[in-house]
Amino acid sequence: DSVIEAGGAAAAALATVGQARGTLVAPAEYPPEVPVSPEQEPRVGVFICSCGSNIAGVVDVEDVTEYAGTLPDVVRSMPKTRCTPAPPTR
């Protein structure tokens, strides 16, 4: 019974809010493009995600960051830890 009631509640909620779906979506806004000519030297930034133990638990982020800094045209190489919320600690 509880599964059927839950399905009914979900259907009732969708009937109420379903019409508003997508109305708060704003179009993406991007900064203006910077003109680049073929004569200009490329400038590459490498940002290595460390995402708690998801990545940093498997990959040596500092080592990858250091290596990326040695690659051609890389002008900035750094770890980044704010790309996703940290997982809850137990």
Describe the structure in your own words.
- By secondary structure, the chain is of the alpha+beta class.
- The chain has helices spanning 2-17, 52-55, 61-68; strands spanning 44-49, 74-80.
- The protein has a domain at 40-84.
- Helix content is 31%, strand content 14%.
Short summary of the structure?
With 90 residues, the chain is an alpha+beta fold. It has a domain at 40-84. It has three helices and two strands.
Topology:
Layout: H1 2-17, E1 44-49, H2 52-55, H3 61-68, E2 74-80
Parallel strand pairs: 1-2
Name its key features:
alpha+beta; two-stranded parallel sheet
- Cα distance spanning the termini: 35 Å
Give the ordered list of helices and strands: HEHHE
Q: Main β-sheet: number of strands, strand sense, barrel status?
A: 2 strands, parallel
**Apparent shape:** elongated
Strand order of the largest sheet: 1-2
Radius of gyration: 23 Å
Instruction: Compute the number of helices.
Output: 3
Total beta-strand segments: 2
Question: Beta-strand percentage?
Answer: 5-15%
Helix content: 25-40%
- Runs in which pLDDT lies below 50 for 5 or more consecutive residues are none
Average per-residue pLDDT, rounded, comes to: 83
Which class of secondary structure composition applies to the elements? alpha+beta
